[in-house]
Amino acid sequence: MKPRFAKAAHPDAVEVRPLLEGGFIPEAARASGFAARAGQACELWLDRRLLLVGVGPAWDERGAERAGALAVARLAGVARIAIDARRLAPDLVTGLAMGALLRAWREDRYRHSPADAALALARIEMIVDRPRVARADWRRTGAVLRGVRWARRAVTAPSNRLTPALFCKALRKLERLGLELTVLKPGALRREGFGALCAVGGGSVHGPRLAVLRWRGRRRRGSAAGDNGRRGGAPLVFCGKGITFDTGGISIKPADHMWEMRADMAGAAACVGAMIALARRDSEAHVVAVLALAENATGGGSYRPGDVLRSVDGTTIEVIDTDAEGRLVLADALGWAARELAPRALIDLATLTGSIVTALGHERAGLFDNDAALAARIVAAGEAVGERVWRMPIGERHRADLRSDIADIAQCARGRMQPDACQAAALLAEFVGEVPWAHLDIAGVEARAEADDRHAAGASGFGVRLLDRLVARWCEQGGGCADAADGRDG
Amino acid sequence: MLQIGFSSPAPQIDGALVLLVEEDAALGGVGAQADAATGGAIGRALAAAEFKGKAAQSTTVLAPGGFARVVAVGLGKPAGRTALQFEQAGGHAAAALTRQTEAVIDAGALTAEQAASVALGAVLRAWRFDRYRTKEKPEDKPRLVSLTLLVADPEAARAAWAGLAPVAEGCFITRELVSEPANVLTPVVMAERAATLAKLGLEVEVLDEHAMKKLGFGALLGVAQGSHNPPRMVVLKWPGKSGRGNQLDKPIAFIGKGVTFDTGGISIKPAAGMEDMKWDMAGAGTVIGLMAALAGRGAPVDAVGLVGLVENMPGGNAQRPGDVVTSYSGQTVEVLNTDAEGRLVLADVIWYCQQHFAPRFMVDLATLTGAMIVALGHEHAGMFATDEALAGQLLAAGIAVGEKLWRMPLGEEYDKQLKSDIADMKNITGRPGSAITAAHFIGRFTNSVPWAHLDIAGVAWSTKDAACVPKGATAWGVRLLDRLVRDCCEG
After folding, report:
1. Which of B84, B367, B368, B376 to mutate to test the interface with A (most CBs of A within 10 A)?
2. pLDDT given for residue A48 in this prediction
3. Residues of B with CB below 8 A from A357's CB?
4. Cβ pair B349, B287 in contact under 8 A
5. Is pLDDT at A219 greater than 70 in this prediction?
6. Are A418 and B377 an interchain contact pair (Cβ–Cβ within 8 Å)?
7. Residue from A392, A417, A427, A442 to probe the interface with B (highest B Cβ count within 10 Å)
8. Any idea what the CATH number is for the domain that residue A148 is in?
């Protein structure tokens, strides 16, 4: 669905009017207790059906998104809504539309026939003073929305429809956006020494893949088309955990809720979503996404607890629990990226541990890093787009817990009640060398069990908007990935 | 406590000698003399052991020349070194001296403060809880009873040590309380032990179950009612600024969870590891040790410590999942899990604290959630704070004394998970984010007083020796909060 920008509402549309707290409020609404506080809504008949939504005491982008989402949440079953965005600044218009469209998202491709009233919403109109200008303003946000939708769709896709090979097939379609794709299949992975990724993928008939998606950055004005004209410089590199289904392997998971493990590729999906956003809005930044794709299945060829694996950088890893597979595939992906891509920074996203869900719940992702400046940028970008993260520690004890009797490092600590999220981050830190690096453990935020006023149910696409905003703030003004505030660039 | 003495370098030394050596530095001072006296034996032995003076490195040379033993302890590189490195060196020295009754540490190259730090580390490491060993052979017991530090200015070193020794004493009070088994240390006994601290000048008030019932401590008493051992609340007042007999003036307040044993109650815990629940009173133990430290060193500050002491047992009168209790604040709580009892105890004690003392700020300590261990492990305690300045001061104090904190988030989206269908709030949420929602529960009883909550579940007890903390009860928090008071609240 796209928003439609018009000067007046369609006659059949239910009109939505966002109102400021302390501003004008119709008497009938006031009488029913509506004070335009953030999160408040009130339905009225004034010639037509009308929904008032509260914005709170002042407008900002986040508040606009919240109001847009609230409108959609309260108008379930309505086919067409029109949001009154006249006299609002461009970022508030796009905020209202973005909030509404994100909240309206749902995945219908696996239904044979429409099931319920929520399916009815077919059109979101934005009533604005100058539709043409608003449409142009929307382009950039619309690109990000496309990225979020791709990620949500991928996370929702059942694992019989999204194997590592099918994931790569879906990536092929993105080449038309100007993204370059390289895929390493099992033979190449073995030859290149991806011992951890190959082991994790070894139990499944659907073999593993390493997919590398590159966006070289917008062409310079006036230069000829082709690679030569594109922005160079050290790339910012995203790494994504892409376990298309996680049974746990030989250390098999309990059956209860195992179906949720189709979302265990949400880190990879978020990376791809961000790449789509950057390509569609023709970002000037040089960015690469490295996706470690595998199915962690139980099979005759599965890897075992106790196995020792050799990762792509030569480090040996003792397997303790085959269900801690995400850190293994990321170890290979990060190690390879650090060596081959000369990144200016590495950021990985992964639905990595239950421990982070216990720590932070479903409201924030865990952030681990080896670089305080990079971490601060990520925190700020997350706050700006409402994908909030919380910085967590990698302590000496966490690394010491991974001592192995027979290999360079153990994959995880033994025993119950372990700070597994911190320990997993300590493991990943071993593979990035001196590269500034951050790890987002997005387990717990990749999907929502229930819809609420602000969020749709199901896949969230968490990370797409954060990464897009990070690139926009860090790598875009001033050209390439240069940034005056950042001492590393010369 | 290990006896500490300071004296000027003596011309003649024998027995056990400790040398503090900087990284990659040659032996100097007393070390050089001793090396010469042994014909270079010490230097050769250290070289053979590849002793480089790195921090935490320690090597023992047995019987060189006229010495019983010479212990070399590394100080690491001088750059960025803080008091902590000297404490750790003292701790490593004490660990290497358990077979000696007395020993000498050459601290001639150190300042008086640095020498006192070495002494503090040694004292903290040499502590042992020995009350219940009756058959241990004398030769198997650690023997170190006195330690003499050779310093340039013994007077100055003694003065520096006088400010630290009471903090060590406070730590030992805490460690002892935490180590005591639950059949010995009931709420009544723990209150009696706290009351003995009146000898330090603390004003002690003990509230029994009748007094608490009269006040309306429904949340705390609900936890206590399943046990034959009645509950107590102890208030320890330190009028370090206002003077004895005067009202405390806007004191700083410390509140501790003191569940002397936690079976979980009717929501009973699994048997494996339940013995650890004897230290579910570590928050209260820490507050008591801290107040002793502040009084012992005569801290010029008004402070109050409050501890809620209960035993959580599944007796015939125990509270049940589903019960609703009315807290002292008037807010009602639906008790969905009787094993989430610490927050119920703290709710009433914290409300009492802010009602009666109008504190500048409140810091509570509690072994509150297993989720905190899963989140951070055993290196950091979790800190939740509503006050940015207090949070920053706590973080800094933790780094200074090596009791590290990691700040955790609070937020409306977590708070709303406490909504109950029939009461003002429920006492548990689902596992996700449950250390955070526990903090929010407590926060509802702070009445907007600046507040920090330290979840010490992962740090109150240690299964491994650390440089200055033998395994077992750590007294984590005594030094941190003493440091906070020193740096931010005095004067």
Report:
1. B376
2. 87
3. 431-433
4. no
5. no
6. yes
7. A417
8. 3.40.630.10
